[in-house]
Protein: Alpha,alpha-trehalose-phosphate synthase
Amino acid sequence: MSRLIVISNRVQAPQPGTGGGAQGGLAVALNAALAEEDGIWFGWSGDTSDNRELRFQTYGGVTSAVMDLSEQDVEEYYDGYANRTLWPLFHYRLDLTEFERDFQGGYERVNRVFGERIGPHIEPDDLVWVHDYHMIPLGWVLRQQGITNRIGFFLHIPWPPRRLLTALPDHRRLVEALFAYDVVGFQNEEWLDSFFNYVKEEMDGTVDGNNVTVGGRTICAISCPIGIEAKDFIAGAAGPVARAAQLNQLESAVGRSLIVGVDRLDYSKGLPERFAGYERFLQNHPDRRALVYLLQIAPPSRTAVQTYRDIRNNLEQMSGRINGAYADTDWVPIRYVNKGYPREVLAGIYRAARIGLVTPLRDGMNLVAKEYVAAQDPRDPGVLILSRFAGAAQQLSVGALMINPYSAEDIADGIDKALRMPRAERIDRWQAMIENVVEEDVIWWRKRFIDALSAETQ
Ligand code: ADQ
Structure:
């Protein structure tokens, strides 16, 4: 049997002392496959030093191997090219994209070092699966070392339209690196189509079904939407920890409808626009103000990057201003908290919420939307309000209230409609969504990708 090798920026293998219960779906699905097939998960340790040795560890049945990066590496590769160039650009934020030659140099250097360290540990039958925008050139580096294994790449974020991508200096070099892989996976058809379009227009390539050919090299490009660990999440949402969190929320809501948002603090998630949309609802419906409150959970991320500090300041000001303008002695319109919660507590909070407000300006998929659906009480489910620009829109528009996240009016109308929605309609809409969330869960996603990667080249 072939082993699975996973390579990603951060390794999410189980760690001693963390119990493992707090892991998200991706970690759960990949660790299960790694444990079954005796694989290895490679990546950055998260620490900085000048030591370039891989450190192996086996824990909870999973072997991982991590390497430190130097401070310069982190600055140029992680905070730089990955999070100040590719992330904003791929999320349609050309205005926030920084183009620095040093960033690109650091990105390629770190990928080369990773590839050179990992290469010797790959055995002839291994399937190699590389993840996300931090690691695009990694497959190419492995090929340089003579590795002829099947190597796949999955992009967790959107693939931008051609016209946006061509704003990146050396864009073609980046895309060419993808042709070192055998299979390239995207979150949905829209990102896949943008990739096809780039290849046809910029590289003189041809597309035949899922086969993409450029200069005699053919790869397989697929749409492969990621899901959540649906069954576990559903069970967790009905369990005691979630129940306590749910009751806690309901008690503090005293008869009001809870609207919940849960996002990493990131400008792609449309948080200022969401606050503005909620404020518009409060303005438009003075009589219903005190009947709702918004709980926004947003743990800080990438705090070394200025744009992330800016968004945090902006949201603090906005929530302060909105609370100042509308609060009463027994009610504040927005509760804004900046910390992380265990998954079962989150599940309970989702279940307590009449509305799940998921309004990214762009998102590769958005798993919070799926978690919100999975956590609902089937007899009295809440309403998902979902941005048409989330990757998840393709699967969840069957039941979600779809909105344009740039429009405060649209968000306000969505909230109004959701609050008025009769139970029968809520159940119908929820049923359409839960079917998809359960069917196309994270195990389905893993299998779909691995099947494509294991298939013989046509
Ligand atoms: P993210 O941008 O991080 O992921 P998302 O898919 O929503 O976005 O996943 C966030 C995860 O973090 C969810 O599982 C959520 O429950 C968890 N989380 C958020 N806030 C939390 C908190 N306060 N406490 C605990 N957990 C919290 C990227 C892409 C997405 C894509 C995923 C997976 O940007 O588009 O869906 O990868 O491919």
Notes: The domain at 230-439 is CATH 3.40.50.2000 (Rossmann fold). Residues 306-326 form the longest helix (21 residues). The first strand starts at residue 4 and ends at 10. The pocket of adenosine-5'-diphosphate-glucose is lined by residues 24, 26, 156-157, 226, 262, 264, 297, 299, 340-341, 346, 363-368, 371, 391 (CB under 6 Å).
